[in-house]
Every structure is written in structure tokens, then in C-alpha cells.
Amino acid sequence: MNPLALGLRLVLRGPRATQVRFLLMTFGCALGVACLAAALSIPAILAAHDGRAAGRVVQGGPSSGALALERKDPVGSRPLTRIFISPPVTGTVPLPPGVERVPQPGEVVVSPALRDLLAERPGLKGALPGQVVGTIGPAGLTGPQELYAYVGRTRAQLPPDEARPLGGYGSRWTAPDEAAIDDGTVAPLRFTLCCLVLLPLFVYLSVCVRLSAEARSRRLASLRLLGLSVRDTMRVSAVETLCAAAVGAVLGVGLHLLVNAVVAQTGWVGLAWYPADGLPSAWTLAACLLGCPALAYLAGRRHAREAALRPLAVRRQAQPGKPRRWLAALLILPGLGIVTAYCVLGVLGIHVEPSALTSFLVPAGALLTGAGLVLALPPVTAWLAARVAATTQRLPLTLAMRHHEATPGAALRVVSGLVLLVYAASLTQGVLVELDQVSRRTAPNQEYAVPSRQVTAEQRAAMTKVEGVSGHAMHTYPTPDQSGILVATCGQLEKFVRPGSMRGCVDGRPLALHDPGTAPYDLRERGRTHAIALRDEDGRAAGNARFTVPEEIVTFSVAQPSALTSTVLLVPPKALPPGLHPAGAQLLLSGAPEPEAVQATLDRLAGIAPTAQIDPVGIVIESLRQLSIVKGLLGTGMILGLVIGVAAFLVSATDRAMDRRRRTATLTLLGIRTRTLRAAQCAQVLLPLAVGIGGALVAGRLAESSYLVTGGGAVFWDGEGLPLLLLSGLGVLAVAGLASLPMARRHLDPELLRRD
CA separation (Å) from 315 to 217, 303, 658? Predict the structure, then answer.
């Protein structure tokens, strides 16, 4: 009979156990391929986001008379982008992507998400003056949850020094103003997702295609003894493996498409996208539909070849070869060497700046350590099992250790997924700690800076009385021609500093300002005269005012970042002529730091001056948005890794229990109690798992610390997450021990005791 036809017949018409194994392999490969497709689709989703963002960037060039002005404000961790457009009296205006009609003065076109948000938060309407007359289509948005608006205004309502001619929108050479993730974050994200998803996924797919490896090897050995050639025996094995992997790959791609359609617009990962963005590319389809069967064939080829070349040894269950220690050492020693070297530099206090070398060595060291950790489990646990079996007097422990000593590779398939999950969890925590330093702010107050030239005197007065604003002052940033100056009273200054930190302030005369926490006081400032250019309410020059820095110093402390940094002089408001203010000054406001209070204050300020640039000092909108996206992607990676690790454990543990049924029946016939068998089974699973998790915790902390040392942040050692990781490891051990108890059954089929 043709070996291909024989292989198909064994799959379709074989015993029920063979058909069940085929279904398990198929569904296991489907789950793995779905996770692989999801991980590989992330770059395509980010590229689609950046492409649409680049396509709507306002371009200059030949203008039809239209003006445009962009404003961006934070709404939670999402930016609200407003494009103010002043159409000309005659002529046409270029249409923004996704917009059917350019809004006229008094009209607003918003994104669907912003339309829904306006219904929930009426206070936001002040930032969008006008009537909503339409919505922006998908072509003009980076995602379904983006907050974006085009606002029609007259030419007189736009600041003449900031509005620019509108020539068009984007081009294929235009870079996006707001990439989903900046280049500096892509590398650590890709590296972490590889550790979280791809390493456990490779192990999981290897487990799935090796289901019932012992029974399949005996069946192939029987075919070889019946006269089938070595080549035909290999072909029969390949048919079953490739059929399961190919069907599973197709089902996995279909599962990915279904999940993508459901999850895409929910924003569950911190980034919402359109379902079409998540469709697998040609390379992704090739990796899933061709890579999975190829991996399945390579994983099953070694044992199939052994059955074809040594059929008698396989049928008689000869002692398997010892694990290859050199392969584990080849991977884990260089990996541990790299991460340990950077940890030593951190202990010595040597700050390693991020560079191309560190961005290559640290991920490479972490990946080598993770792979070597898994490959080192069989030889290490086999050696440990031999030592325990030689010293213990307990029968369950002796049975477990002797069996594990004989077949250490079987336990590798059971526990490797969970070990990699614990290892990757520690790495992920290090990445989150590094990224969290970007936006961490623990200030007692929140500052807001509004350029004085963008608001009128009435608007400034209204802003100082807004609910949520506790203090106000006029401030100028230091320039080469002018030092930083604060126009405020002592009571106003107190609203911007840490409570109880201000000393030596007296109202009514100029005073020197100094924050001892930033830098030593420059004695050369004493007696220096500063000329301050003044402007009236219409922005016209109104002469100069001169102030000399006195010897009296007001000391204070502010939370960084702050607009008061490098400000050297405090000027009382009465020292300036009425109606005049320093040129280039900004209105500085202070309020509560809670996120809800900050958002409400921003809404009220935008309602007073819709076109003014309101800068919440210390809040980087893009960093908040990207941090939300990265946390969402890492959380998704953790969920995928958890699913893969648990699935690998359950599948391999169940399969191993099926392969051990005959051995369990033999021990039961010899009088071994079920309780003893269950204890032995539990110990046989917990030994390699405990060793692996212990190694994963140590190696993971080293890899995490090496990433923190080379990440450029101030945190080198993260001790806050260690208790959680330890509890997680103990939880994994407890769940694995409980899951292994039902594997030893009391009632067994006597047919299992038959010998060939």
C-alpha cells in the first residue's frame, strides 16, 4: 500500500485513541497558530495607524487662502486633537482625509469617539465651539477610539502669529506627527513580546506535535518490523503530523480573524484599530500555514527516525539516551554571562547609557538565558532526582525520582511552558518599571502654562477664577537676553511650591528666588540688574522695567518638572505699571494634581480660550498615550503567554498520563496503592517545575536588572515586584500539583498489561 494512503488510513480509521490524539494535535496547533498570528499582526496594526496619521498632517505650500491651527490636549491618557480651519471667502479648501465637507465658521466635524464623549461630558463642548455637522471617516483616523476634530473659525478668531497657510494634507513622504509607538520603545517591546509569546509558543507547538510520542513510536516500529522501509515509515509518520499541523494552522488563522474582528474596536490593549488593519499579511500567512507544518515535521522527525532505525529497541522500550548537557551550556552560559555582567556594572554604580550595542546584547542575553534555562532542566533535574532517590526512604518519592531519572525529557514537555511564563513575567515587569518612569509624577500640585499673547485680559482674568485653579502668576522663561522672572505675591508663590518649604518671602519688593534642591545659588546674581521688556494688552512694546537682584533670598522647593525652575527673581505685581506685563510672559496657574481634577480644569480652561495652547506642565501627552498602548500590548502578551503556558502544561500532562497508563496498571497489579501512585505522580511533576521556577526567578531577576541598568532610567533594582513573583511561582506549583493528582486512576483496562 502507498505509504501516504497508509498514513491517512491510520489517521482516519485508526483506533479511537489515535483519532483523539489527532484532534488534540489539531486543536493545539490551532491555538498556537492563533497566538502566533496575533503576535505577528501587531507591526501591521501599528503601521496602518502611522500611515493614516501621516496622511492627514497639515502641509504648507501654495495656499488657497485657508489657514489652519492645531491644538492638542490630554483627555486621560488619550490626546484630543483639534484642527482649527479658517476657509477663504472664495475658492476651494483641500478636504481632510475622511471628511466630506470642510466645516465653516461655527461648525465642527468630529470623530465618532469624540461625538460619544461629548454626550457624556458636556463640559468638553467649550473646547469645540460650534455645531457638530458631521463625523470623520476611517480614512482620517488612526483608530475608532481616537479623539479628533476639525473646527471652523473665522480668520480673526485664529492667532495670526501661529496660524499657517493650508496647502494640503500629508503625502507618502510625510512622517506622522504621532507614531503609535516611538522608535525607542519598539525595540524593548519587540524583545519582550518575543520572550512572552514566541519562546513559549515554540515550546507549545513542539509539545502539540509530540503528543503520545511513545505510543506513536511503538506503532511506527511495528510497521517497520512488518517490512515497511525506513523511508516509507518516515512518510507514514509525516502524514499524520503534517495533516494535524496543516488543519490546525488553517483553524488557527480563522480563530485569529474571529478574535481580531471582536477585539479590534474595543481598545482592550490600549490601542483600538479597524479590523482590516489586523488582517494577516502574506508573510504572516506563510509563517502560520507553512511554518507550523514545517516545525511539526522537524519536531516529529527525530523520534520517527529512531523508530524506523531501531524498531526492536523502541518496542522493548530501551533506556533513552542521556540529555545533551553541552547544548544547554552552549546557550545559558553566554546568556547569563551577558546579563550578569551588566548587573555587576549596576552594583558598581557604573551607569551604562543606552546604545546600539546594549539594545542588541541585552535582548540576546535574555533570549539565550530563557532558551538555555529550558534545555538545562533535563540534565539538572535528572542529576537531582538520582541524588534524592539514593537518600530517600519514602516509596512515592523513590518511584517518582527513579522514573524521572530514566526519562527526564518527558518532564521537560510538561513544565517548560510554565517555567518560561514565570521567566517572561519578570522581564515584563522590568520593562514596565522602565517605561513608568516616563510619566510618573508625584507633585503636590499641577501647573498650567498659557502664553499671554494667545489670550485677552478678560480671558486671563476668567482663567484665574476657574474652579480647580488655586493660584496664578505671570512668568517668563529664561532666555539668553532675559532671566526667568516670576510676577507674583508671596501668597501666590506659595500655591506653586511644596507646602511649608518657602522661607524669607516679604511682599512689596523684589526678591531673589532659589530652590536649593536644583543647584547651588549663583552668588554672581546678587546686585545684577535685569531689564524686562514690557508689552500692553494689545501686544505693543511699552518700554522696559529694570530690577536689581537683592541680597534677600526666598528659598523654596518645587516638584520637578516645574515652570519655576531657573527662575531667579520675584517681582511684586504692583512694581509693574498697570495694564503692562513682561514680553513673552505666560499665565501660570496651579491646581490639584489628581487626574480627574486635571482633566476637569483643562476642559474649563479650553472653554474660555478654545484656540489657546494650554500646557499642563510635566504631563507629556504622547508619553501617556504610548505608555497606555505599551502596557496594553504587554498585558496582551502576558495573557497569550499564560494561555500558551497553561495549555502546554495541560496537554502534555494529560498526554503523559495516557502514555503511563500501562506502567500505572503494572504498579497497581503489584499492590501499590492509588494514594502512593498519586503522590509519586505529584512529586514527579513538582520536582522539575520547582527547579525550573526557581531558576526562572533568579535568571529573570538578573535579566530584568540588566535591562534596567542599560535602560537609561534612575531605577536599577526593582524590589517591589519580587513578592508578587514569588507568590505567583508558589501558585503555579500548587495548581500543577493539584492537576497531577487525577492522573493516577484506580480502575484500569487489563488490556494495557498485554505484551507484544
Answer: 8, 13, 17
